[in-house]
Amino acid sequence: MTSLGDKGEGHWETTALLGDEDEGSVQTQTKVLNQGSWTQVSCPCCVSEQVEPLVLIQLSDNIQPVTKRWLISLIGVSERDGGAALLAHPGEDECGDVIVVSAPRCTLLKATEDLGLCKKYRNGDMVAFSYNDRENFSNVDDMQEFLTLAERQYIVKYELDFLRAQKEQKIPGVPESQGVLKARENICQKLEKAGVIKDIFPLHDKQRLTDLGRKWYSGKQIWGQPLDSIQAYFGGTIGFYFSFLDFYTWALVPPAILGLVLTFLLPGGGSGGGVVKEQAGEGVMEGMVEVDDSPSVSGHMVQAMFSMLWSTLVMEFWKRRSSSISHRWGLLHLTERFAEPRPGFHGTLGINPVTGRLEPLFPEWQRQLRVGLVSVPLVGLFLGLVVLGMTGFYHGEALAQGFHQDSGSLFSGALLYLPSVAHIVYTNMLGNVYRTVAMQLTEWENHREESSFQNHHTTKVLLFTFFNYFAVLFHIAFYKQDLPLLRKRLASLLIVTQLVNQCTEVVVPFIVDRFFSAPQKKQQEDDPDVDKLRAQRSLPPFPGLFAEYIELLVQFGYLSLFSCVYPLTAVLLLLNNVTEIRADAYKICKLFRKPFSAPVSNMGVWQTAFEVLGFVSVMSNCWLLLLSPRVREFCLEGGISGRNIILFAILVEHVLILVKMILAFMIPDEPDWVRIKREQIEFHSMQALGQQKL
């Protein structure tokens, strides 16, 4: 392995990056670094005068020069010799605490094939990239055009993540208690545990970011987003989120119009009060009924039927749009399951029977046992604790109200707030504990692929969050059977949530950017060149899209599950989302570090969560229809027993589920042209594999 220990300050070997690149955006990045200090590449096709800084590795403040030289050497040597085949720049000098990393052309191209990315072929079609056939792809000599910035930066992370020790060795300059690498151990993960590496993050391109912000959130347009530019700069994960947010916001227009019509043009259509007191046996539909002056066709009956159909059609048409976007972005043929295992994966060293590589192996049946016998029961336990907390809240509320009625004192009046405060504290504490347990459980399950890890972790947190948001509403609707209370609770949730969201997502970011970030921006103008790159670490890391997807999922749930009792739900959500798009865009561009974004072909487990809510909406709306004043009045006048009504509701529920399934079957998940393109990609890949064997 080549050592860089004998190279003094200012004498690092010159290298290059990307083939013939356009100047402009590249120069905004490369001009801040001395081009003569990059490590050397041996491949002639990778030599270039301009090297694009892509990723910054922040080292510990007391990093030893010998450790830094060893790491730079490891980053630069070929994969055959145990390195990452990347380009490294030492920053100010070999004693500094940063390493700037880029990637040569051949490394980028080989990783493109490994990831299964599709690129434009010479005939204009999107084809799975093949390194051996690289000369037949468009723009293959210009990495700025061939790969997006997000793809180039992710490839650097991809290569760094899979740096593994070829044999047991000691890390130079690190105490032996922390610095011994075992064979096939992940090097970056070990260095992070040892405190050598503080952080690894992609670098912003200021000029591109400014241009993107001008098109995205600084303009006067209300609708439409530069989705291709978002995907090119921030990657597929963030691109798919904003694409779905845009699609979902447009999809709110029809239910919003219907809600306005039912509320203001159809007398009583949006209300329909009444309470049903549940009784035993045949008397389930008998009890106290408050008949309103609704029209013969109840407004929330129309809204319920519409919501069930709307939730199905939205997700089916989204899947079609998602597949079209996936093709346009070259993400139809991803091959994660054939890549190296994710950094946290562990097992017994062996030969992968599919790829033939030496890597950690872990039996699938052991993972399934861990999920089924440990993870599922523990998740169920926490969900039970959520229900227990809700039960305790109602019990405590009843006790506090009874005590206040008997006492009537100021002290008893203050005690009325105690159950709510206690419930909030309980759910927050339980949520914090659960998030930690969910992460540890998912780590313990030992998933090989990063997407599998993220899907299992997201599913665990999603179930808990769903219970937290919807348990009270289901309790009011199905146990108390109190539609006026459900309507009031839903309206208050929507209004308060929108106000809080607008404050936290618009006002707070604006204040932070305007008053707290300004001194830092002014200070950076006179900083040394490398400090301008290092300063990006002062921004907080991007927290991910979990909270954003949860917000959309809760919106979708409010609308598809309960909007029949409050038709203005879609109107409030539409108004919120129009500002949500710009607020989210502003935050990700201005207030956080640039995140790494793995190539993805869809929304993953979130898409499944939205579809599951669509099925739950059938049961929810059928029951709410059963509670509607017109249906109850009709049943009581017709002398229909409660048991027959329940049987009829179950029959209607099954029929509607069948209708949803028929609609889902009739609407293909991808347009015919995308299906043909996907099959062409598979056929072309099969042909390329056959030619390689010959």
Mean pLDDT value: 81
- What's the total helix number? 24
Please tell me how large the radius of gyration is: 29 Å
Shape: globular
Question: What share of the residues lie within helices?
Answer: 55-70%
Structural class, judged by helices and strands?
mainly alpha
Distance between the termini: 34 Å
Largest sheet: 4 strands, antiparallel
Which runs of at least 5 residues are low in confidence (pLDDT < 50)? 1-24, 269-297
Annotation, overall tally of beta strands = 10
Strand order of the largest sheet: 2-3-1-8
Q: Which percent band covers the strand fraction?
A: 5-15%
Summarize this structure as a short list of keywords or feature phrases.
694 residues, mainly alpha, four-stranded antiparallel β-sheet, two-stranded antiparallel sheet, disordered N terminus
Give a nutshell description of this structure.
The chain has about 700 residues and is mostly helical. The chain is about 60% helix and about 5% strand. The chain is globular and about 90 Å long.
Characterise the protein shown here.
There is one protein chain. This protein has 694 residues and is mainly α. Helix content is 58%, strand content 5%. The chain contains 24 helices and ten strands. It has helices at residues 25-30, 65-76, 105-115, 143-146, 149-161, 187-193, 206-216, 227-234, 236-251, 253-265, 299-328, 364-407, 410-415, 418-445, 450-480, 483-516, 518-524, 529-534, 546-562, 569-590, 605-626, 629-638, 642-666, 672-693, and strands at 55-59, 87-89, 98-102, 118-120, 126-128, 169-170, 180-181, 197-202, 348-351, 358-361. The strands form four sheets. The chain has a four-stranded antiparallel sheet. A two-stranded antiparallel sheet has the order 4-5. Strands 6-7 form a two-stranded antiparallel sheet. A hairpin with a 6-residue loop joins strand 9 and strand 10. Helix 12 (364-407) runs antiparallel to helix 14.
